[in-house]
Amino acid sequence: MVVLICVDGARPDGLVRAATPHLDRIARDGSTSQTVKPVHPNLPLAGQQSLFRGVTPDIHGATGVVLNGFKRTIPSLIDIIAQADQKVGMFYTIPSLREVCLPESADVNYCNARTHVSDGDNHIVEMAIRTAAAEDFDFMFINLGHAGYMGAHYGWHSDEYIQAMTFTDNCIGKFTDALIALHQPVDFVIASNHSGANATGSDDLPLYLWGTVASKVASSNQISPSSMLLPPSPTS
Q: What is the DSSP letter of 163?
C-alpha cells in the first residue's frame, strides 16, 4: 500500500518551532527534504492539482481560490491508479479536493470539512483507520487541513499555527502507527501543497518518504535539494 498524506500549508520554519516527534522519527528513519519548491501561484488549489496531475497551474487552470477555468481533461494520479484496477481511498478536510480525480476513481471518498477545529483532522485519521481495517486499499490519500486554516486566519508564524502543526504531527503519528499495524508493507509520502499565501520568509515546502521507497531514494536520509512539488506527469 502507498499512502499520500498532504498537510495543508505545512512550512519547514513552522515544523522547526513545533513539537513534531512523529515527523522527526519519519525523517530519521526515511528520507526528507525541507526545500521542496512550490508551484506558482503558491495557493492550496494550484498546489494540490499540480501534485496530482503533474502539470503546472497555467496548464491545469486552477490558479485562484476557486476552480474557475480548471481543466478536468488532464488525468490525475488517482485516475491512473483506478484505471489499473487498484483500490483507492480518499479522506480529506477541504471539500474542493474532491476535484483531484474523477468521481468514479475513488472507491471510498470521504470529506469532513471542519478545518477550523483540530478535531477535524483527528476525525479524518480515525475514519481512515477504521475504513482501512475493513478495506484492502492499494492507495490512500489523506488530507489534514487544520494547520492551513490556522495559518491563513492567525498568521503563518503565529503561535496558533505552531500549535496546529504539533496537533497535526500527533494525527500523523496515530495514523501511521495504525496503518503499519494493519498493513505490511506500507510506503508513506508526506507533503505540503503550499506554504501560505502572502506568507513572509521562505516559500519552501517539506517532503518525507518513509518505507521501502525511502531506501531507494537516498541512503543519506536526504532527498535532492532541487526537488519540486510538481511530480513527473502521471501520464508519462
A: H
Residue 51 lies in a domain: yes
CA–CA dist 65, 203 (Å, integer):
18
How many angstroms separate the Cα of 104 from the Cα of each of 35, 88, 99, 148? Answer: 35, 10, 11, 28
Alpha-carbon distances, residue 99 vs 12, 125, 127, 223 (angstroms): 27, 20, 20, 29
Neighbours of 107 (CB within 10 A): 17
For residue 174, the one-letter residue type is K
Cell numbers 505552531: residue: 162
Rounded to the nearest 10 degrees, what angle do helices 146-154 and 159-182 cross at?
A: 170
> Into how many domains does the chain fold?
1
Residue 85: inside a domain, yes or no?
yes
pLDDT beyond 90 at 231: no
- Would the pLDDT of 18 be above 80? yes
Tell me the average pLDDT of the chain: 84
